[in-house]
């Protein structure tokens, strides 16, 4: 319904397990596919975590693939960058980005 302001799917999880668990053994295709045709945020995560990770990607079997790809094919792209890493509290002293490789120790 184009006029609806309610979510199409609402999951409330008050337990200790996963709110949504998707197990896929399909050889091709995407277990999750989002095709958003609106000029607004496609994925928005609001978390109140204090000492855990908001998004964790575990690609233990990767050999030549990537764990994360950010790309655009827009000829009109004029943003300041394809991605931003921001710490918006002036009192924060942590790193904005940490990259490490145990194999090369770099």
Give an overview in words:
This protein is low in regular secondary structure and 106 residues long. It has no helices and no strands. It is extended, with a radius of gyration of 18 Å.
Instruction: Please give the number of β-strands.
Output: 0
Proportion of residues in extended strands: under 5%
Q: How far is it from the N-terminal to the C-terminal residue, by CA?
A: 51 Å
Shape: extended
Q: Compute the gyration radius: what is it?
A: 18 Å
Q: Can you count the helices? A: 0
Structural class: little secondary structure
**Helix proportion:** under 10%
Oligomer class: single chain
Low-confidence stretches: none
- Give the rounded overall mean pLDDT: 86
In this structure, how is the largest beta sheet organized? none
What layout of secondary structure does this protein have?
Blueprint: no helix or strand
Task: Put the structure in a nutshell.
By secondary structure, the chain is low in regular secondary structure. It has no helix or strand.
List keywords for this structure.
single chain; 0% helix
